[in-house]
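Input:
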Amino acid sequence: MSEDTIRGEDLQPLSEIDRLIHEPARLMIMAYLYVVEAADFTFLMRQTGLTWGNLSSHMSKLEAAGYIEVEKEFVGRKPRTMLRLTKEGRKAFQEYRKQMEQVFGELPE
Amino acid sequence: MAQNLDLKELERKAFRSTFQDGLLDIFLGAVLLLFAVTPLLTDLGLGDFWSSVVMGCGWLVAWLGLALAKRHVTVPRMGRVKPGPARRARHSRMIAISTVVLFAGVLAGFAVYLLPQPDTRLLDWLVPALLGLVTFGMFSLCAHLLDLPRLYGYGVLVGLAAPAGELAYRHGAAAHHGWPIAFGIAGSAIVVVGAVTLARFVRAFPVVREGEP
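Output:
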């Protein structure tokens, strides 16, 4: 077998990738929440370029997985939704990064 | 994908987005305009005490204006973000170093006045030069620690204002060591940049109301 051939075990980490995070929109959301302490809905909408509905739907999935926590509050009479990564979410994101680096690092040129 | 995801750059982008409203520029320009206007108050017959009161009130109004505008203009358009621990540590460093630099500048200024001077012409130029250096240093420090390169440009502009004002004063072209003209020009230029940035920001980012698509 030549060195350039991709072996099955090289791709093993791919099967362990967290598919919930791997989706591009959710990956962006997780990445933004990873680098800040907390952000509100509007901020994430502006940064990711997602629509309100789209962001909301991804948020629900991440919240259901326990990766983010959602805090609803009222500032005056206006509602505000603050979002932050949970410990579990932070750990899952770090794990995801490690796995992706491993996958691309081990692939032959 | 993960390999192309530069988290440092992402954090910088998130943080800098909170400064694209031009409000900081307007605030800095307004403060410089205060430095330009305050010396003129003595011409109107106000003593040092009342000039200082006007200066203090001006600072307060500028701060309040900045806080209110952030709350009512920026947050409804750009949202709210709490920076991470690394950014907060950077802020604390900036405040600590700025305080030390400011103190050193004030001490150096006092020293220049208190120490015996062999040549008074040296003193005339030393103070504006020192003021220019300290302000340039402060702006550069903020530019570096806040990741806002345009503050370097402001640093050059403001750093040159005091020596340029002194030069105009020495040639009889300006009163009050040239502060009204030099800081007036620098402050106005920065306010104009801020106002244009704010107008663009408001046009580019309409208000978002939670729950609306």
